[in-house]
């Protein structure tokens, strides 16, 4: 049976790096992104029999239709990677409700909906693996990223709880938390102490690269590659 991997947010960054690694491991890939052109570009670069799809992960019907399309063209999903995410850096008092909802819906609700659809499929297959891409910011917080931190922190809690829910179904759930990302400029309104703290973090943390996180995602599919 073909091994099928769905990478949501697979058109760029960590998602694209994961897609390349999974293709090397012999998976048939569904590259899913809001930007269909970007998804097609990645699928084309990978060569082989891969699928490119557009999906708004914050819409349950859109997610369900996407999984149906994947199963129709590639087969049932064995491995899910949730790399779709957005960030709207700003101080909380300057963040609009629209920007709050946008981040929470994409970064947290979206992963919940894709996991829900994937788990239904994986239960039928008697196993599978899910990796959610979080952020170290969700664990330690960061000034100017309160909403983003909340969305990624919520993803950690969700992943831990879901892992316990589906363990008996031989479904593995993991979350990868990329290290601090370099930020090009300070947010207006930060105090001097916060700016100094931010500058120190940028100097002491290695700027992470997408391919380095892709390697960590490999831990999540150990149960599949060993079969």
UniProtKB/TrEMBL annotation:
Keywords: Fatty acid biosynthesis, Fatty acid metabolism, Lipid biosynthesis, Lipid metabolism, Oxidoreductase. The keyword Cell division does not apply. It comes from the Eukaryota. The keyword Lipid metabolism applies. GO terms for biological process: fatty acid biosynthetic process. Residues 3-180 form the Ketoreductase domain. Pathway: Lipid metabolism; fatty acid biosynthesis. Pfam families: adh_short (PF00106). InterPro entries: KR_dom, NAD(P)-bd_dom_sf, Sc_DH/Rdtase_CS, SDR_fam. GO terms for molecular function: oxidoreductase activity, acting on the CH-OH group of donors, NAD or NADP as acceptor. PANTHER family: 3-OXOACYL-[ACYL-CARRIER-PROTEIN] REDUCTASE (PTHR42760:SF133), SHORT-CHAIN DEHYDROGENASES/REDUCTASES FAMILY MEMBER (PTHR42760). Belongs to the short-chain dehydrogenases/reductases (SDR) family. This is 3-ketoacyl-[acyl-carrier-protein] reductase beta subunit. It comes from Sus scrofa. The lineage of its organism: Eukaryota, Metazoa, Chordata, Craniata, Vertebrata.
């Amino acid at each position: 049976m073909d091994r099928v991997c769905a990478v949501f947010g697979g058109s760029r960054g960590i998602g694209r790096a994961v897609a390349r690694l999974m293709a090397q491991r012999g998976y048939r890939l569904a590259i899913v992104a809001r930007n269909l052109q970007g998804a097609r570009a990645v699928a084309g670069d990978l060569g082989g029999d891969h699928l490119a799809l557009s999906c708004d992960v914050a819409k349950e019907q859109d997610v369900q239709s996407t999984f149906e399309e994947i199963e129709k063209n590639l087969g049932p999903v064995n491995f899910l990677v949730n790399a779709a995410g957005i960030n709207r850096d700003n101080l909380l008092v300057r963040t609009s409700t629209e920007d709050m909802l946008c981040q929470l819906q994409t970064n947290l609700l979206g992963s919940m909906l894709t996991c829900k659809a994937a788990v239904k499929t994986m239960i039928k297959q008697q196993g599978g693996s899910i990796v959610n891409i979080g952020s170290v910011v969700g664990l330690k917080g960061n000034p100017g990223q309160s909403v983003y931190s909340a969305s990624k922190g919520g993803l950690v809690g969700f992943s831990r709880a879901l892992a316990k829910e589906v363990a008996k179904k031989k479904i593995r759930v993991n979350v990868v938390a990329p290290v601090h990302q370099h930020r090009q400029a300070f947010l207006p309104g930060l105090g001097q102490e916060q700016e100094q703290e931010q500058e120190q973090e940028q100097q002491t943390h290695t700027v992470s690269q997408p391919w380095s996180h892709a390697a960590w995602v490999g831990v999540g599919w150990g149960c599949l590659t060993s079969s």
